[in-house]
Amino acid sequence: MKLPRRNFLRLAAGAAALPVVSRIARAQAYPSRPVRFIVPFPASGPSDVLARFYGQKLSQRWNQPVVVENRVGATGTIGTEAVVRAPPDGYTLLFTADLPITMAPALLKLRYDPQRDLAPVAALAKNDALLVVHPSAGIRSLADLVAAAKVKPGALTFASGGNASPSHLCGEMLKRQAGIDMTHVPYSGAAPAMNAVLAGDVTMFCAPIPLGMVHFKAGKIYALGVTGTAPSPLLPELAPLSAIYPGFVISTWLALFAPLATAWLSGAELSRRIEADTAKWTDLIKVANKAE
To answer: Whole-model pTM?
Structure first.
């Protein structure tokens, strides 16, 4: 399946067709009982919201309940491992962002291999980030940010939703791409990190676009650009930061997986994306750890 290029919210708004998920197993009578989506992240996050949206649509189509279960912890690996160990019958599926699939192998000692123990079913959405700064920083462009960081190495700070979160890796990638030094300030989620920028406690934050755009449009923060390969449909006036630093791309994705032995149609393109992303994050994390 071709990975959708629209933002998470635009995908969610038009996802009623569900072209790939409806072919979820070959068994003619499938499903004959409730299907369980395990989401390895907290309720109300992007993975959870989209899982419940798809689950509702599939329940209507299948005339069977789709139950969303949140199994949180260890950067999403607890819920992911639960699916790996589940019976490969198509009734326990993993609905996740890419963190426990492509980033966790470089961060933790896992008891599963994402590329060997899970079968990709479909890539369902992607979500780019918005690089924002507090107006008091006097930074109005990526060039301003880089110049300020080079004048006082380590003085600028960047918030994240936690160690090894996409927003943390976004800051580390910017440091690497631009050859600058900044200080990481982790918070317990994207919302507290966003509040820190709004209060002027930190210099910058790579915010999920749905979270950052509200404050940007209200004039409370300044946006330097988006982290995708193209402008976001939600903020078409902002250029992608990759136009300046081609490797500066942070685009998390959400996808559906099953235990490996389940009978699926091929998810070949998603498999290639997983392999490429795993290599990218492993390299970045290795370099960042050496620098500390």
So the answer is: 0.68
